[in-house]
């Protein structure tokens, strides 16, 4: 077997719950430090360095929280659906646990996106909420997250719960591209994207820097919290495994 194949096998080995537990135990503190550092830097640049917007004034600064959380709400749903689908297709326990661990964090980011959007909408549109296509589909995304969480916790058989949750997650993933393209498909109040892979950015460089720093901070937070939740689920589901017994005994001994 060549070196690439060996590296692939080593990476795949972390799908084992015991190795995943060990790896994430090392990664979680790194993620928390990254979250704190990038959050402080992003908020400082966004609120104290970035210039005032010519049309929206100081109210626009909510975008440094709103836009990264909105990005995360969509990306995490797709990641959740991916792992749920992998768990369903290959009966991979760790993949299903990851999907479960992602759902509450995705729901939190979706709620923050809606909440900060309302704060931004009041001075910009004159109202807290409108049944705009982007806002409505984002609200549907929150319901999909909550529905997934409720469904997997309502079924006692964990395997059946994972399968049912995977079906809901995969069907619900259709909503994500609708959210993204809603401002192009319909005439909406919500503004279009200020940052585009193909067209670049229409923002000042300091604004863009602050937003990207906050996006990295959101990613670091998501990794830290999801890993912590996944580790707890791993201990719960693998309570019969010898490595869990050794882990618990080691903690008691200390």
What is the gyration radius calculated from CA atoms? 21 Å
Distance between the termini: 42 Å
Shape: flat
What does the main sheet amount to?
2 strands, antiparallel
Helical residue percent band? over 70%
Strand percent estimate: under 5%
Q: Averaging pLDDT over every residue, what do you get?
A: 86
Q: Are there runs of 5+ residues with pLDDT below 50, and where?
A: none
What does the model show?
- With 254 residues, the chain is mainly alpha-helical.
- It has one domain (29-52, 59-239).
- The chain is 78% helix and 2% strand.
- The chain is built from 9 helices and 2 strands.
- The chain has helices at residues 3-12, 17-49, 63-90, 93-125, 133-154, 158-172, 175-185, 205-237, 242-253; strands at residues 195-196, 200-201.
- It has a two-stranded antiparallel ribbon with strand order 1-2.
- A hairpin with a 3-residue loop joins strand 1 (195-196) and strand 2.
- Helix 3 (63-90) packs across helix 6 (158-172), helix 4 (93-125) runs antiparallel to helix 5 and helix 5 (133-154) runs antiparallel to helix 7.
- It starts with a helix and ends with a helix.
- The mean pLDDT is 86.
């Amino acid at each position: 077997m060549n070196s690439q194949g060996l590296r692939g096998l080593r990476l795949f080995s972390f799908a084992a719950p015991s190795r995943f537990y060990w790896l994430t135990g090392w990664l979680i503190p790194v993620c928390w430090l990254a979250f704190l550092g990038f959050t402080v830097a992003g908020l400082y640049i966004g609120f104290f360095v970035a210039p005032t917007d010519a049309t929206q004034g100081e109210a626009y600064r909510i975008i440094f929280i709103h836009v990264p959380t909105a990005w995360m709400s969509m990306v995490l749903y797709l990641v959740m659906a991916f792992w749920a689908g992998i768990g369903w297709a290959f009966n991979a326990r760790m993949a299903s646990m990851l999907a479960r661990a992602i759902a509450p964090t995705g729901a939190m980011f979706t709620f923050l996106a809606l909440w900060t959007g309302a704060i931004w909408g009041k001075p910009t549109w004159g109202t807290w909420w409108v049944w705009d296509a982007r806002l409505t589909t984002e609200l549907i995304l929150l319901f999909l997250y909550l529905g997934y969480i409720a469904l997997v916790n309502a079924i006692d058989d964990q395997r059946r719960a994972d399968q049912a949750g995977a079906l809901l997650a995969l069907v619900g993933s259709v909503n994500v591209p609708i959210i993204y393209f809603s401002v192009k498909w319909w005439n909406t109040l919500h503004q279009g994207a200020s940052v585009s892979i193909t067209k670049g950015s229409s923002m000042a460089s300091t604004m863009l820097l602050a937003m990207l720093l906050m996006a990295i901070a959101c990613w670091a937070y998501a990794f830290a919290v999801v890993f912590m939740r996944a580790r707890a689920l791993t201990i719960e589901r693998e309570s019969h495994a010898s490595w869990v017994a050794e882990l618990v005994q080691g903690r008691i001994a200390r």
